[in-house]
Amino acid sequence: MLCTRRVTPLVFVLLPTLVPALPSASSAQAAAQDVRSEIEDLLTDPGVARALERVEALDDWSLETLIELTEIPAPPFLEAQRGLRFAALLQELGADSVWVDAEGNVIGLRRGIRSDRTIAFGGHLDTVFPEGTDVTVRQVGDTLFAPGVGDDTRGLVVVLTVLRALEEAGVETEDDLLFIGTVGEEGLGDLRGMKHLFREGADPIDAWIEVDGGGLDRVVSMGLGSVRYRVTFQGPGGHSWGAFGLGNPVHALGRGIRYFQDAADRLTRSGPRTSYNVGRIGGGTSVNSIPFEAWMEVDMRSESPASLARIEAAFVAAMERAETEENGLRREGDPVRLVLDKIGDRPSGEVPPDTPLVQRAMATSALLGGEPELARSSTNSNIPIALGIPAVTIGRGGAGGNSHAPEEYWVNQDGYLAIQRALLLTVAEAGLGVILP
Q1: Which among 118, 83, 302 has a CA at the least distance from the CA of 205?
Q2: Taking burial as the number of CB atoms within 10 A of a residue's CB, which of 106, 108, 131, 327 is the most buried?
Q3: What is the rounded CA–CA span in Å between residue 274 and residue 319?
Q4: For residue 282, what is the domain's CATH number?
Q5: Quick one: DSSP state of residue 173?
């Protein structure tokens, strides 16, 4: 899932066509100069040049792999079948070791020469589409149509192609590389794969590069935080005439929505951008029955952790007020009961723009013809960003649309450029390894 709000670039870096957006940002300027030299050195390396050539030569293979993986269903919480094939491909393409962790993430290790740091490069295995969705790929001209063909199956293919190109070109890195297919990125998965990878006591990951979303321009270095709730009001239920006077869960739910919107509207008209949405609602059995249950699912997002906390508090207060007032109106029977289930919690945060990983992501985008800009989004990178670990999300390339819809499509419009960009960024972050005689 990638819902992005573009923001004014904080700094443009690297090539002569780019200049710092903030003249006083001396640290960003210094970082830009260092990155410029670093990337220029990388491009003169024969191994890196071979790897970039291999990426373009592997274009047909990448498309075949995209079709194969797309046609392996990966519904929410049911990613295992696709994960097994992804693991087999990691093994075939030369990873030193491959395993599936306790949460279902598929991980391939490519050892570095010194192994002082660990750099992770990943995409997510899951799609938003439920079990039973037809995921057969239909090709019309140069366009591939299928649920999940772009988001994020193409991201997985970028990860695999980078591994294959590095292996076939004989490029070594200083640091260990992890090639990862994560579970639980979409919807109610709530980034469970990433939360497991970055849990307390886990083997440390020093930087994260995620492939999600399209194009070459966007560098997601800011995490959009969100909280999600499933709200249920429960009551005894009964006949609309014979049991009139009982507390009504639907009435309580409606009251709660009104109170929440009144408060949320005030909170979202100024300050850091914040949003709220009642996305799903249900309950009741018939028009002449007092419901025994009414429920809804609510999404709240904000650029600011403090603003997100405020709107969440307003939401909880509105639901509790609705429960109290509905019970005050009942004339008989057991009270209506409120149940609040927090079903999503994605932290927010920002990576400083002069961080080397961010500068490298901007630089490699510009080098391959992109117009880089920093962006905010809700992606796997939210987790490391919130923990203060450098992380970016970059695009899968090509051209696509209708993400999260059955008619999702992807076109291989210079799609290899995004893979070359990902390869350069990964090698730059991990350090080009030189084996001494």
Answers
A1: 118
A2: 106
A3: 19
A4: 3.30.70.360
A5: B
